[in-house]
Design brief:
Layout (H helix, E strand, L loop, with lengths): L2 H9 L3 E10 L2 E12 L2 E14 L2 E11 L4 E10 L2 E7 L8 E19 L5 E16 L5 E16 L4 E12 L10 E13 L1
Antiparallel strand pairs: 1-4, 1-11, 2-3, 3-6, 4-5, 5-7, 6-7, 7-8, 8-9, 9-10, 10-11
Length: 199
């Protein structure tokens, strides 16, 4: 079977399921200052400052897609990773240095994407964009935040056989809320590699 015939067969396959591994990049998590009011002055005394950052993390993802045409489809996905939130204390009033606090975070993203797959023989590039729900819990399941997630990017699928393909994705994910000190939107790159089965 030639690759041209193979791609015609794959174009008729409308349902795809897949799973694989992900890598989520690090991001700034903001900071804050511990201050103490002074009766003799309107300027508070700064005891120390903190800065924090989400470290890059590996994870896993699962996907289910449906293509209305050989080019246009929709996809639902679930992504789990466990990044580390690392806080560093600086400018300590008593001169202490090198103090850090580390906490593991359970991070979940559930969402959907609209996809456009370009024509190709063995390799089929695609672009995708969509939205989801992001949720983070600390390692003691005490602090929980959730909010809207927006993403966009692209990738390519490499056909291995009539049903199997390997796929690589690179997207930019913007998350409304996270367990960050400043509570601002968190923007991270996410890359993934997965194995896809086409029915």
């Amino acid at each position: 079977m030639t690759w041209a015939v193979l791609m015609v067969v794959l174009a008729q396959s409308r349902i795809e399921i897949g799973g694989g591994v992900t890598w989520t990049g690090g991001a700034d998590a903001g900071g804050m200052s511990a201050q103490l009011s002074r009766p003799s002055s309107s300027t508070p005394l700064t005891l120390f400052d903190t800065t924090s950052r989400f470290e890059p993390a590996a994870g896993v993802a699962a996907r289910v897609g449906f293509f209305f045409t050989p080019h246009v489809g929709v996809e639902a996905f679930a992504d789990y990773s466990r990044p580390t939130l690392r806080a560093t204390i600086a400018n300590d009033f008593e001169g202490a240095t090198g103090t850090e606090a580390v906490m593991s975070i359970d991070s979940y993203v559930f969402g959907g994407s609209l996809m456009y797959r370009f024509g190709g023989h063995r390799i089929a590039p695609f672009i995708a964009a969509g939205a989801g729900h992001a949720r983070q819990l600390d390692d003691e399941n005490v602090n929980v935040v959730s909010g809207l997630e927006l993403h966009g990017g692209g990738g390519a699928a490499l056909a291995l056989s009539r049903h199997l393909a390997v796929r690589g994705d690179a997207i930019f994910s913007s998350r409304e809320k996270s367990l960050a000190f400043d509570g601002k939107r968190t923007n991270v790159p996410v890359v993934s590699a997965s194995l896809t089965y086409r029915f």
